[in-house]
Amino acid sequence: MRNTKILGGYQLRGGAGRSRQARRNAALAIGALLGGTIISSSARADVILQFTQTNATQKVFAFATESLPGVYNTTFSATNILVNIQPIAAPVSIPVYGYLNFTFHSTSAANAQELQISPGPPPIYVLIVQQNFNGDFYISSLPGKAGIYYLSGTAIDFAFGFSSSFTLQASTPPDENVVFSSDVIPANELGTPRGLAFGFSSVTPALNIVGTGPGASIANFQANVVLTASADTIPEPTSLALLGTCLFGLGLLSPRRRPLAAPG
């Protein structure tokens, strides 16, 4: 007998052994897939870079390997995928073309739950898949991670999706979840909160898992990719000094005074 949970008009069902965290992750996945992906934990973050592919024949690949009997691990990889970068928070002419390279490795077992998208009859279900990954990425001006680095970094991600689309997403806090560096985006534009979301479309074959239980992982596929990266601006020392001057002028900040000595 399966448990069924109603979520925004959709039914989510999974085995009785599913953890509360797995159900929460599935709920987040559905909310993002149906209502737009959230890539930052704060509204203060601004988009610093987005890209789309220029050639849909270039693909991201997922490979699942059996590391131990019945235990699978998945790696996502992109090699020299040509991308059109716009916008970018840097003093460069738009559009900018670059090359995407990344490698992300699974760090947890995959969870799968069914989402009812039509009551039928018969009812129609899709498989919601979630799994954790970490890895690094490079968007450079030349193939092979060479030339100017428009944006690079590391991320501890949460992947989720169903059917032919899914998202690999990470955000701060903690700060080490997303780390950015760039040769063209000013360092003070790469502050926290930071967010990163790779969106995968035309996933073929449809998103699925291989293995069961603690040995399960996302199965092999190929897909196209887009990216949105966001970060907050770190105030420069001169800006902080100006802020202090303004607060002082408004009487909201005052120098510490020594008490006057009492008359003798």
Task: Give an overview of the whole structure.
By secondary structure, the protein is mainly β. The protein has one domain (43-110, 129-249). Helix content is 11%, strand content 53%. It has two helices and 15 strands. It has helices spanning 20-35, 237-249, and strands at 3-7, 10-14, 46-53, 60-68, 71-88, 96-106, 111-118, 124-142, 146-162, 165-171, 178-181, 191-204, 209-210, 217-218, 221-232. Strands 1, 2, 3, 4, 5, 6, 7, 8, 9, 10, 11, 12 and 15 form a 13-stranded antiparallel beta sheet that branches. A two-stranded antiparallel ribbon has the order 13-14. β9 (146-162) and β10 (165-171) form a beta hairpin. The longest helix has 16 residues, at 20-35. The termini are far apart. Mean pLDDT is 80; it is low at 1-12, 15-19, 21-43 and 237-261.
Give the tags:
two-stranded antiparallel sheet; disordered N terminus; 13-stranded antiparallel sheet; 264 residues
Summarize the structure.
11% of the residues lie in helices and 53% in strands. The protein contains 2 helices and 15 strands. The longest helix has 16 residues, at 20-35.
H/E element order: EEHEEEEEEEEEEEEEH
Q: How many runs of DSSP E, i.e. beta strands?
A: 15
Count of all domains: 1
Largest sheet: 13 strands, antiparallel
Task: Give the N-terminus to C-terminus distance in angstroms.
Answer: 90 Å
Which structural class do the helices and strands define? mainly beta
pLDDT < 50 stretches? 1-12, 15-19, 21-43, 237-261
Please give the share of residues in helix: 10-25%
**Overall pLDDT score:** 80
